[in-house]
Amino acid sequence: MPRHHITELPSGLRIASERLPGVRSVAVGFWIGTGARDETPRKAGVSHFIEHLLFKGTRNYDALQIAEIFDALGGELNAATSREHTVVYARVPDEQLELAVRVMAEMVFVPRFAELETEREVVLEEIAMVEDAPQDIVHDNFGEAVFGGHPLGSPVIGTAEVISSVSRRSLQSHHRAAYAPANVVVSAAGNVRHEAFHELVERSFPVLVDGPSATIRRVPFTTVPPPLLRFQRKDTEQYHICVGAPGISRTDDRRYAMSLFDAILGGSASSRLFQEIREKRGMAYSVFSFVSQYQESGQLGIYVGTRAENVGSCLEIVAEQVGELAAGRITPAELQRAKDNVKGRILLAMESTASRMSRLGKSLVTGVELLTAEQVIRSLERVQADELAAIATDLLAPGRLSAAGIGPDEDIFLDGIDRINPALRKVA
Predict the structure, then answer these.
(1) What domains can be seen in the chain, in order of their start residue?
(2) What is the pLDDT of residues 292-301, one digit of tens each?
(3) CA distance 231 to 409
(4) What global pTM score does this model have?
């Protein structure tokens, strides 16, 4: 099995790699330990805006040159911002790794913040696009309901009010604070040798050997807020609804049971919610459960999009199935199928250089123990049915459930919510 290697520069920047000699490509990522949860309301969306601006020119390359270089490599270059980290990543032929790392290092550490006003308009258009997609915006509203006023519930994309007015100086200040070398991990997977990759990363930005320490102060999530309800009136054909509660952190021992619980409840085609709501009754096209895990907490939720006449019935089925799981009514075959599903997805991901690179980078930047696929699979195999029942009982008890909805009539939404947590009507 390929082995990973981890080293560190004097600046604190960490370098991780995993060699896969049977391929002719390398996936590489620059992982920065900052995201939406590190922003105040006055800076909502700044991390995502900076991610856009990294592509708009550096000390030695303008935006067009960056695009042309990666097009000429036949590679892909992209980036993403989440609640707790930002990543700039690429996949290129192995002989072009040096050029790719050199350009990406400049993008991450010495962006010029060029074309600011043009890119500001691009991000505002992106916000408008999300606002026109209720199946997306309901998840942001749900985050606010679950986490109350904590930054973990803030939309990653930010707000139009902030993006339309934030200054270049404010963006540069946030970049200096968050993109310090000690807050960055560079990971790679593919046809790459670690010693050569370490030397390549080190010489790509020698000026940062004595770089500053990160000065981002993350607000801890210490108190679970009471369940909240959010409803947004919109003239849609369907009601878009999320229900759920705070979950577990990414280091919680229950995370293996959580992945199996998700697969059984609504995370696969054979899951209970998919079968009961879509396949047997045809009451929804899209219905699923979802799990997010953060530094100290997480999120466990269920989404359904359905027409007005089905809202109550869909949510009643949700309540019934969560109750069935809480009562421990899980067959051995169902549990084994969930284990096989999750194990299969892990093994298939290990055939991807991008997945292996992400495993390295995300683990290091978030402080999670880096486990092999075999270690994870062994932990999954040890999970018992009563551990899944405990998750339903402890985390999805009716009195813990928050909800968010988008649709034409709040009363129809509230009548449906009565099926899962009647106390939420008082919050409305």
Answers:
(1) 4-208 (3.30.830.10), 229-427 (3.30.830.10)
(2) 999 999 999 9
(3) 9
(4) 0.94
